[in-house]
Amino acid sequence: MTTFADFYPISSEKENIILDSNLLKRLSQDSTPKSPSTEYRLSLGALPEADLELDSFSTLGSIDLDSSPLISSEASTISLELDLEHLSYPSPVLLKAPFQPAQLTTVYAELAPQTNHAFWEDLANNFDQVYKEAPELVREKLYKGIPSAYRGRLWKIMSKGDRTFLETLYMQLIDEASPHDWNISLDLPRTFPRLEMFQDKDGPGQTGMRNILRVYSTYDSQVGYCQGFGHIVGVLLMQLEECEAFCIFVRMMESYNLRTTYSHNMIGLELRIYQLRSLMSTHLPKLLNHLDAHNVKTGMYSTQWFLTIFGCCFPLSLVQRVYDVMFIDGIDVTLLRVALALLKRNEAQLLQLDQFEDIMKVLSTRMCEPFSGSIGDILAEAKKLEKTVNKKILQVYAKKHELLRRIFDRN
User: What is the reported pLDDT for 26?
Assistant: First the structure.
C-alpha cells in the first residue's frame, strides 16, 4: 500500500508531486531530464493555499464553537447520517475501489450579452488582474455562465491547471498498467452513454477518459479509481484536451479538497452529507423532517450528487454552469449551494409525496423540472445563498463533524 508519510520541501518551484516509492523508482530510470525528483512532495497539482484563496480545514482549530454550540440531537443521529452502509449508488465498485480600473468595469457591465466578447477576451487574457480589480463583477458574470468559446480556457486558468508540471508526468505514465483497468473499462460505456462523444469504444471520448482514469489511478494509488471519476473527467474532456483535463482533475482532487471524498474511509463525502443535513435543518426544517419521517436519509440521494458533481443525474447544461463558478467559490461551497437551491425549489412537491419510492424518484431524476424554463435560475438562486452558505459556516459544521466523529468512534 502506498504511503505519503515522507514529504520533502520544494527547492525551486511552488508545485508539488505525489509519488509512491515504486512509481518513483520506475520514473527515475528515465534518463531524460523530465523525470521528477524526490525533492517534490504532495502534490504536483496542488498550489499553496495563499495562491488558491481557499480556506483549509487546518484552520478549523481556531473556530470558536461557543458561538455555535453542538445541537444535542446531532450526537444521536450521527450513526445514521454518517454510516456509509446506507448510502445509495449504482455500483458496489464505488465503495470497494480503493480588473481593471472602475471605468472599464462600468463599460463591461453595460455590454449586452451578445456583444460581451470584449469582457470574456480580457478575462481570459488577464484573469488575475481583472479578478483582482472587479471580483464581484467577474463572479456575477461567471454565475450567468461562461460562453462555450471561453469555457475550457477559463476553467484551466481559474483552477490554475495551467501552472503545474503535470503534463510531463502524464506523458510518462500514460503507458503504465493500472490495477483498475478492468473496472475502468467496465464503467466507460455507461458514463454519459447518450452523448455521441462517449459512445464509440475506440473514439476520442472513451479513449481520453480511459487514459486519464488509468494515469490518475497510477499517480495516486491510495485512492486509485472510483466510479464517480468518469462523470467529472467526461465533463472536463468536453471542453479541454486530454492532458489539460488530467491536470485540472488533479487540481480538483488535491487543491480543492475533493480527494477526501474518495479516500478509503470517504470522510469527505461523510462531511459533505453532514453539512447538507445541517444546512437543511436551518433552511428547510420542514422538508428535512418530512424526509426523515419517510426514511429518506440525506446520503441516499446526495451521495451521487457529490461523487459526480451532479454529472450522473442532472442536465449537462447545469453541470457545466456549476463548473463555471466552483473554481472561484470552491467545490464544497458550490455543491452545497446548488443542492440547497434545488431542494428549496422542489420542497412543495416533495412535501406532498408520502411514498418512499415517489420521493426518491424526484430526488434522483426530477429535481430540475421546476427549472425547465431556465437552468440559469438554479445558479441565480444558489448565488442568493452566499451570506448563509459560505466557507465560514461550512468550517463550523466541519468542526462539529470532527467532534461528533470522535464521539462516534469512541462509542
Answer: 54
